[in-house]
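Why do we care about 3D structure at all? Because function follows from shape, and shape follows, mostly, from sequence. That is the central idea of this module. The next example makes it concrete: a single protein chain, its amino acid sequence, and then its structure expressed as tokens.
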Amino acid sequence: MKSLRIIFAGTPEFASAHLQAVLDSQHQVIAVYTQPDRPAGRGQKLMPSPVKSLALEHHIPVFQPTSLRNADAQKTLASLNADLMVVVAYGLILPQTVLDTPTLGCINVHGSILPRWRGAAPVQRAIEAGDTESGVTIMQMDAGLDTGDMLLKAFCPIHPTDTASDLHDRLIKVGQPALIQSLDNLADGNIHPEKQDDNLANYAHKMSKEEARLDWQKSAQALERQIRAFNPWPVAITALDDTNIRVWEAMALEESTSNTPGTLIRADKKGLDIACGQGDSKSTLRIKRLQLAGSRAMTVQELLNSKKAMFSTGKQFS
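And the structure:
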């Protein structure tokens, strides 16, 4: 089998895990492209991306252009004479010139089974929508947004308690072998591209802090999925007595209620039971872990030990 000369383009932890898989394979990573260093932490010190850190450990040349649309950046990339470019959560749009530069083009590791979720947040949107299955698609990139031919798909379940963090980690485990299998297939010329059915596509909008606030008019099931999808970022939020509260964990109860949505029905060591809306038979959400401003995340039992008066029944969340 031929050993491919690969340019790897990626930025976050999800990408670095796949870079590690390529480094462990017989293929050769000749260069890494990643986003410029960003300020992080209290001191706002410039920090390298996880992909850059891993590349430097392995003494691989790192490139951090702010765009791949200018001639100089494209000339530099072409001078590497790569067989293939592997793109995983890179964060830059690749113009057609770049897509056409490596001999075998560019492939992408996408965190969903296409075409179900195209776009920036397929992991989170799948949980929010109540999907029971996800996976990774290895895709031949074209000029569209996640519209290229599918080279390989690897499936995994979405469990009823999965957060976005849980599913992210599971997708790495199925994505790493799927990527290496695809590289081997490309090296052997053993590929069978499958076109996507655009009629089945949904757009996975990027997550935002603005949509993190819980709307108690929704059903308990919808809110529970939102809380899991928004964990670990941006984290669902609600308010009580004008105090913002981040919600890390909750469960939907099989319990109808006549209370106004947002009303605190019970507060004990099991959790905070809050009336939700939607339909004639309103539902109930139990918050199990939450976080007050300036404090750490804690269980409801821990919180009630010091803040019981704040959570008296009948109070209204907003």
